[in-house]
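call fold(seq) -> tokens
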Amino acid sequence: MKNTILRLLKKTDHLPMLFVGSGISIRYLGLENWKGLLRKFARLATDNEFAYEMYEQQAKGLECKDGLLPKVAELIERDFNVRWFRDEQFRESREQSAAEISRSVSPLKIEIARHMRDKSMVHDAEYATEIELFKKLEMRSIGGVLTTNYDSFIEDLFPSYTKYIGQEELLFSTLHGVSEIYKIHGCYTKPESIVINEADYTDFTEKNAYLAAKILTIFLEHPIVFIGYSINDPNIESILKSIVKCLSAENLEKIKERLIFVVRAKAGDTEGISTHSISFEGGKSIEMTRVRLNNYEPLYQALLENQAKYSAPMLRRLKQDIYELVLTNKPTGRMRVMNLEDDKLEDVEVVVGVGVLAEFGQVGYAGITAAELYSDVVFDDGGFDVEKIVTLSLPTLLPTNSILPVNKYLTQYAGEVPDKVQSVVKSNFDDLLASSIKKNREGSSYRNETILSLKRRYSSEKCLQVLQYLKEENIDPSELLNLIREVLTTNPSALSTTEKEKQNLKSDIKRAIRIYDWLRYYKNKGALAAAATNCPPC
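ret:
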């Protein structure tokens, strides 16, 4: 089965895009399907064991412009919101949601977001092998992800991808078509973005033209792997209907081999591959390949074998830099441009380089920015020469950046460390913190928290802000790394921004990276050295 799927993927030269539905969240996070989610909140809206059935019967007697479930959600929301503002069981949630309430965000969406956040933190151990394979798809096996899910499963596993939430962000952002996640029905990190009720779906449909155009471009350029959806899912049918309207019968024939719909085999069914067709008004139809699997391991293994030469995050950074260069005529800090006279161009071989080239030598490494080093500590994607970083970059940067994350590079460097660099190495955790924090942290209410416990109640940015109050032993480096990547994925310019209102976030993210660098590389340097020599630490 794996080899058959691999042959399907190799029919084009482009990496596939994943279109991920709620079945993935149900399988790996234990979340409910749409109807199950509404059933949960119907019971919270009214004290009636048949609450959902009551709302469903009401909806059937009304006009349902966008289907039954959006209308059911609308009715549940009406009663739930009234109860949320009065009931004592939601008091803590009301206190923690003051910002959302001030923006008139629906309490139902606030509570759905809290539910999704909490469930996103725990993966089902039964599917650990599948989840680990899925996680490996991030770098070279897929171009990006489209999803209607609200949870953070995908971005947690693909932290280097840039996330776009809802149609508004898709409309007003520059998309590069690689290493990106499009959350077209919203995300729990922005409760107001969640598409759940009839008004939301009506608004979504009215603004659907741009989304349909974007998705059409993706369909024409990439194989599309649908996973976690029913083959009759109304969301998928709506999107395919928009695609069908734009294409002739001839072009519909061309894209049919690009559409791969993966479904779970029901009890007693065998695995297999077949053709499935969906008909639409006007006599048009669209064909796709249906892959029926007992589990998703063969799919992920096939995707992993169908790798690109370069990593998707690196290609996105290159496309972003080239776009900015063309748009502004100013190279970014990661791109060096050499002026050439027009009459000399015919004698020049143009070379595009990704990463830091050895030919840059001393000049290139002396020009590396602090933001690039901070980013490399987090994503480990700079491809830097450690010796040049320690002997050229750090001594150049330290006079204007008195604190930098240096331990990653020092653990890999075997030469004599320059005095200027050695002087900034901290031997104690408390030395990483400001004196005002050290005075107040013992009495802080955050003292005994962990990163995971903070994430259950606060935004990622808030977690970074209070990170310095946590006990050293309560900060797990891997959890901290995931938190930092999550914030940088949402705020890709945070390390280099000059915007006044984002300076606090910039300080918080840099401090968090220095803490991670110290915990990961300085505190555990004995274990790292042992791993490098394949022997146990002393």
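The chain is about 50% helix and 10% strand.
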